[in-house]
Amino acid sequence: MEGQALNKLKIMKLESLPNGLTILRIILSFLLLGLVLYGHWVLPPPIHPTWINYFACLVFCIASITDFFDGFIARTFNVSSVFGEIFDPLADKLLILAALIGLLVWNRAEVWAIFLILSREFFITGLRVVAASKGIKVAASNLGKYKTGLQITAIAFLFMDYSFANATLWLAVALTLYSGFDYVRMYAKAR
Length: 191
Hints:
It is globular and about 55 Å long. The longest helix is centred in the N-terminal third of the chain and has 41 residues, at 2-42. The chain is 83% helix and 0% strand. It has 191 residues and is mainly alpha-helical. It has helices spanning 2-42, 50-76, 82-105, 111-133, 142-159, 165-190.
């Protein structure tokens, strides 16, 4: 009896871990944007301003890693929740939005690249809502995972102000748009 209660408690903790990581990602998104906008107050001179780059990149990378782990835990231990299904993709988009707004404020990313990425994300989110309302489930493809990985890489490079970062961002834009097209194609097939 005591063993069953202990196992049930472990399962409950395990079930809440992915949701906790999703909530952490949302909090880190706000922290990231705050750091970009007000980092000069948090790290005033004589601290060199490039440290803001490093901290912003670190916060962004930690938040991105939580996305990997919440999905990994949910799949590995077969623990999912309605909260996770709804808020995990929204937390991902919030993180990307905070990062891209920050990079726009720092004038490190081109407006058209950001507009195309965000347009695709909003369009696909809307399409998912329409699909769900019709009882159609369109699974995320590996292409979407590659798209996310390339976006994360490009954003991290932009935070670090690498010279090739904008080229990486435009590669991410191309893959983002292509994966959006692929998602629409899968939705059309499922109807």
